[in-house]
Write a structure and sequence with these properties.
Elements: H1 3-20, E1 27-32, E2 37-40, E3 54-60, E4 65-70, E5 73-74, E6 87-90, E7 95-98, E8 107-117, E9 120-134, E10 141-146, E11 153-163, E12 169-175, E13 180-183, E14 188-191, E15 198-207, E16 215-222, E17 229-231, E18 235-237, H2 249-303, E19 306-310, E20 317-321
Main location: membrane
Keywords: Adaptive immunity, Cell membrane, Disulfide bond, Glycoprotein, Immunity, Immunoglobulin domain, Membrane, Receptor, Signal, Transmembrane, Transmembrane helix, Ubl conjugation
Domain Ig-like: 22-122
Length: 336
């Protein structure tokens, strides 16, 4: 037997056994939420087999079929309904593309290639892949949840949403001119029941009397498994300029109403009798003036009385007007 052929046969058998071993390390694949994942099947087809001779399919760790190509034609009969319409096969690269990736899609996948012969199908290739799904968290955002309080504190919260997997850590960095302090608070988290994405937040209360210089606050989110850090926009605190606090008109109104009633009612009660007296006084004055006028007119009337003395029965009356308007030097009577 030719030793060269023996050596070549040994190499072929080694390659076949390597790919068929169940303990072979799976290929690590990462895909983003709502994106597309490529599930490769690194088959070289060294024998130049026709697609009409092969049966190719992919399945997940639960043995649910994602896609099947039976003798060169797609066969949807065995495909699980949750993968229907979500896959496409790249013939040139022997890669199955899984579209609209969800968190539930992460896990193990296997591709199988069988050679259909007259006596039956023979498995000629198998490959395992592990799919991890990622979702980028939004940029952390610092929000002031209340204005300055009675204790002169600034209450802040930092949040980041729609990410996966669960982040490792979330913290505040408090920077002043002389130092930087890291505050590791308790990270609050919640997970959506449908998408399985995480929302996280952390809270901080800053005492303004303790702030003696300008302070810059930054929120930092450490994600997994990429081990990256996401930074928020800086939030500034200036101790010289306290934050504006709108006046509480409710307190003012509640204080002003009783005070107005307490002062206003006595003043009103004192004002009413005064008004009554003022109304009576003009009446008395008018009566006095009327009496004076009547007396004056009476005296003038007396001075203006005509005294008529007849000289004889046949003659006209001779009238003398006794009036204060006639000059005293002219004592002659006026004759009509």
């Amino acid at each position: 037997m030719d030793p060269t052929c023996t050596m070549g046969l040994c190499r072929f058998l080694f390659v076949v056994v390597f790919f068929l071993l169940p303990d072979a390390a799976p290929l690590k694949i990462k895909a983003y939420f709502n994106d597309t994942a490529d599930l490769p099947c690194l088959f070289t087809n060294s024998q130049n087999l026709s697609m009409s001779e092969l049966v190719v399919f992919w399945q997940n760790q639960e043995a649910s079929v994602l896609y099947e190509l039976y003798l060169g034609k797609e066969k949807p009969d065995n495909v699980n309904r949750k993968y229907m319409g979500r896959t496409s096969f790249d013939w040139e690269n022997w890669t199955l593309r899984l579209h609209n990736i969800q968190i539930k899609d992460q896990g193990s996948y296997q591709c199988f290639i069988h050679h259909k012969k007259p006596k039956g199908m023979v498995l000629i290739y198998q490959m395992n892949s592990d799919l991890s799904v990622l979702a980028n968290f939004s940029q952390p955002e610092i929000i002031e949840i209340s204005n300055i309080t009675e204790n002169l504190c600034r209450n802040l919260t930092c949040s980041s949403i729609q990410g996966y997997p669960e982040p490792k850590k979330m913290s505040f960095w408090l920077k002043t001119e002389n130092s930087t302090t890291v505050y590791d608070g308790v990270m609050q988290k919640s997970q959506d029941n449908v998408t399985e994405l995480y929302n996280v937040s952390i809270s901080l209360s800053v005492s303004l009397p303790a702030v003696t210089s300008n302070m810059t606050i930054i929120c930092v989110l450490q994600t997994e498994p990429m081990k990256t850090e996401l930074f928020s926009s800086p939030f500034y605190i200036d101790p010289k300029v306290p934050p504006f606090q709108p006046p509480d008109y409710t307190v003012w109104i509640a204080t002003a109403i009783p005070l107005t009633l307490a002062i206003g009612i006595p003043l009103i009660l004192r004002y009413i009798p005064c008004r009554r007296k003022k109304k009576k006084q003009p009446g008395v004055s008018n009566e006095r003036e009327t009496i004076k006028m009547e007396r004056g007119e009476s005296e003038q009337t007396k001075k203006r009385v005509k005294i008529c003395v007849p000289k004889s029965s046949d003659e006209e009356f001779q009238c003398v007007v006794n009036s204060s308007e006639i000059p005293s030097g002219n004592r002659n009577a006026t004759r009509f």
